[in-house]
């Protein structure tokens, strides 16, 4: 079964008669071809799972001269199918006549449209190739898109028990090994694993190369941003990777676990309103404030006596004892929830 999501399959008609043009010719000057030919599609992607294959690509928004276009009339989707045993890496790809997919406006509101094509009519032991062109008219066809290819066999089962562990600017993933096909039969070939990531839970993209192991640490992430992951199992068949099942998606958010630098320049001065504690302003970007601590000379433990907003570097201890020497220290906190706190500064005390 094959279907198009977000676009309709257009019928293919052979025009046996000449195109009749009324009148004696053009009423206006013809438009140069480069102003109506769309730019080539460059993001043809595919996902293979136990159900078949899904292709996606973006509608072009410019012509080959770089000027904006409103949309396309249709897409020509080309497919080639070659038995794995007969595949020749240096031979021309035998693409068949294209399937015509109706186009439309390139922008839907403010969002660039994507075409989606799905097919479950796949033959085991065959290699598939796809490419696509877009058209604004019968004569104005774009160049070929990038070509994608994959081999279809009975898929191996998806990995199970995918778990994540967030860290500081990293997320670690672990999963269980796969040992069977979807139909329960044992796998005789090696299995690799492809990590896929999404920023919003859709449009997953591959990160890194397929792995032999059962863990991966993603260091290309930002703290406090939520990421989604799936793992796809892949069978190694004579050097060709056959896409298999995809695990259930999990999400994780890396955490800022790095505290700010310790405040410097802490000074204590007695005044009529109490003891004023000063310190140098931090130069870090994510400072969320400061905490002021006091300990009496006869004690080892500190007591937090105040919180200060990040724009200030002054605190007044109005409850300081006149009969005991007090020691003060300051820490910095960041804007993480809960915040990371620096170590305590060097102590400061007033001079008697």
Which tags fit this structure?
24 strands, 352 residues, four-stranded antiparallel β-sheet, mainly beta, 43% strand, five-stranded antiparallel β-sheet
Task: Tell me the layout of helices and strands.
Layout: E1 2-5, E2 45-49, E3 52-58, E4 71-83, E5 99-105, E6 107-108, E7 111-112, E8 114-119, E9 126-135, E10 148-152, E11 163-167, E12 170-174, E13 191-198, E14 205-211, E15 215-218, E16 227-237, E17 240-246, E18 250-252, E19 267-271, E20 274-278, E21 287-296, E22 303-308, E23 314-317, E24 326-334
Antiparallel strand pairs: 1-8, 2-3, 3-8, 4-5, 4-9, 6-7, 9-10, 11-12, 12-15, 13-14, 13-16, 16-17, 16-18, 19-20, 20-23, 21-22, 21-24
Short account of what is shown:
This protein is an all-beta fold and 352 residues long.
How would you describe this structure to a colleague?
This protein is mainly β and 352 residues long. It starts with a strand and ends in an 18-residue tail after the last strand. It is elongated. It has no helices and 24 strands.
